[in-house]
Amino acid sequence: MTLSLDTIEVKQISGVSAQKQAELHALGIFTVKDLLEYYPFRYEDYRPKSLSEVKHGDKVTVEAKVIGIPVLQRFGGKSRLSCKMMAEPWMFTATWFNRHYVREQLTAGRQVVISGKWDQKRSQITVTDYEFPDRGEGKTGTLQPVYSVSGKITQSWLRKTISQALLQFGDLIPEILPQPIMRKYEFMPRKRAITTIHQPEDSREGQQGRRRMVYEELFLFQLKVQAFRTLNRGRMDGMVHTVDNATVRQFVRSLPFELTNAQKTAELEILQDMRSSYCMNRLLQGDVGSGKTALAAIALFATVRSGFQGALMVPTEILAEQHSRSLQAMFEPFGITVALLTGSVNGRKRKDLLASLQMGLIDIVVGTHALIQEDVFFRELGLVVTDEQHRFGVNQRSVLRRKGYNPDVLTMTATPIPRTLAITVFGDMDVSTLSERPKGRIPISTYWVKPDKMDRVLNLIRREVVQGRQAYLICPLIEESDKLDVQNAIDLHIQLSQAFPDYRVGLLHGRMTPGEKDEVMRAFYDNEVQVLVSTTVVEVGVDVPNATLMIIMDADRFGLSQLHQLRGRVGRGEHASFCVLVADPKSEVGRERMAAMTETDDGFEVSRRDLELRGPGDFFGTKQSGLPEFRLADMTADFAVLEQARGDAAELLRDGTFWTSAEYAPLRSFLQKEHIFQGDLID
Ligand code: ADP
Ligand code: MG
């Protein structure tokens, strides 16, 4: 295969000038492959309909006959042309604005195909498009693709250019799916599928094309993650951790509590992975407060005692601070050094830190995402633990590997998901689950109140702070407006400060500098601040055991998993804790969320309900989960297809001939392009 579509630049398509090429680049289209995969997001229907089928105000295409004499009115520089038409059995008026020249063409009895908006009350169509079949014109009867365009690129130019590309290069569209799969699902060939998505003959054909390409996208995704995993195991080039059990037990005994059975099982699974020579990629999921941090600490201890360095990556600076403080306390007695690296560490301090890290003077580094990038080098990185929202995608792991590290990876999440779903979506990971919480926890009582009961909420705050406890008050989430979120927080902070003059009320929001945030959080940890008014920046991970009250304003605006996360900030100590949802939900979903929250505080049950309410696509929110964004596939609507694709990919990889048979060469070259393995793997 010498000529491949992803090496042919768009300027090779006739009609694409240098300027047009630049505009295509702005849409992310560089090669012919990119262009052909630039799929329409909907279709415009130019298939003629009967006027009895359409509603007032809808766009419609009708076949009609001229039955009246066209009337042209001019006003200012504008014109309006109307003519009586017949589309059996409807008589209506067709109106053209500013197209006076159409008048000559409207001869009595002539057939016209008209598209436009149907005004049923006046029996009128305002024409946007028209064609004369006797001139052999041809949009009629078709579905026209609608693309997302911008700049100087118009719909019609893009349609034309894609047709041209199909004409010139269509024969180079390679088949990639193997025959057994093509037969199993009765898929159309790849070229036809791509063609029909851009130029559907009818909607059935278009749907068949889409069905095939959706499957292909999901299948390739599954093949990628599963091949990565298989090869990782096969290659046995992970870090071999040599720490012995007695050493680990020493550390575990130093913890101020006994591990739960669930923690013990997960510990075993993690250490087993770390000791073996394949590269660990394990997801540790457990409800908020189930004690994931302790496991992270054990794993980090094990990597250091095996002679490597460890990194703990968290989504926010607040969390990084918190974790570095608690790890420091745990590791101090063992002479293990812990450093904190965030965006606010810079200058001389940062330089020294990076140098120490590279020389191996630092054992463990805690920080945000920047931790594993660019100028950060380790002497020998053995383990990366990522907390909460972070997750390494397959490609990020290849980047790490090319940097010379092949660390074991442990990902922790407090959004527990059913095991089958985890395996399907995170195809490249093993899963450990903490299904129980530490004994002796007092369950959190959750209440739902209407906003007009704010005085009672204030009394509740008073009751807790008088007893020496602390409270969070989370501000409403205003979609798409960080600015309004902040304003809300500021207003509520003023109100609460007035309501509680004898206590300190703190304010925390996303627009504060990292230094300011740290200062407020530190004051809250130390109980110098009793009430913390905050936007959702405290959502994940924050651990202040003396806080016993969580109040969430306009709670129905938050997703269920997020509400549960927020609730998880309390109930972490020996005192009884409360969560109050202040909301007057307008939607059914909002009411169901409130009901779910008051009925259960089990994270697995909450996420099951969340999944029901939202579907898997929304549930994961592709951006933050590190999942690829698919061009055509939709994680919610196409979830069943994803499951099928997962099974098919697994079966194919189990088949010994996958790595050798000529039939799978296109799939292997796809994997190679995705950097799943280096060229030397194929013989
Ligand atoms: P999460 O899973 O939400 O990250 P943490 O690791 O922050 O939970 O643990 C929550 C709290 O429970 C912490 O204060 C931690 O010290 C405590 N904890 C963890 N494991 C146990 C245990 N086995 N028994 C008692 N307390 C525990
Ligand atoms: Mg945590």
From TrEMBL:
Q: Which Pfam families match?
A: DEAD, Helicase_C, RecG_dom3_C, RecG_wedge
Domain spans labelled Helicase ATP-binding: 273-434
MF (Gene Ontology)? 3'-5' DNA helicase activity; ATP binding; ATP hydrolysis activity; DNA binding
Q: Does the keyword Metal-binding apply?
A: no
**Keywords, sorted A to Z:** ATP-binding, DNA damage, DNA recombination, DNA repair, DNA-binding, Helicase, Hydrolase, Isomerase, Nucleotide-binding
Annotated catalysed reactions:
Couples ATP hydrolysis with the unwinding of duplex DNA by translocating in the 3'-5' direction; ATP + H2O = ADP + phosphate + H(+)
| InterPro entries linked to this entry | ATP-dep_DNA_helicase_RecG (IPR004609), DEAD/DEAH_box_helicase_dom (IPR011545), Helicase_ATP-bd (IPR014001), Helicase_C-like (IPR001650), NA-bd_OB-fold (IPR012340), P-loop_NTPase (IPR027417), RecG/Mfd (IPR047112), RecG_dom3_C (IPR045562)
Domain spans labelled Helicase C-terminal:
453-612
Supply the CDD domains for this chain: DEXHc_RecG (cd17992), RecG_wedge_OBF (cd04488), SF2_C_RecG (cd18811)
Which PROSITE patterns does its entry note? HELICASE_ATP_BIND_1, HELICASE_CTER
Under the heading NCBIfam families, the entry gives: PRK10917.1-3 (NF008165), PRK10917.2-2 (NF008168), recG (TIGR00643)
Q: What does this protein do?
A: Plays a critical role in recombination and DNA repair. Helps process Holliday junction intermediates to mature products by catalyzing branch migration. Has replication fork regression activity, unwinds stalled or blocked replication forks to make a HJ that can be resolved. Has a DNA unwinding activity characteristic of a DNA helicase with 3'-5' polarity.
Q: Member of which family? A: Belongs to the helicase family. RecG subfamily.
What is this protein identified as? ATP-dependent DNA helicase RecG
Give the organism, scientific name. Answer: Paenibacillus rhizophilus
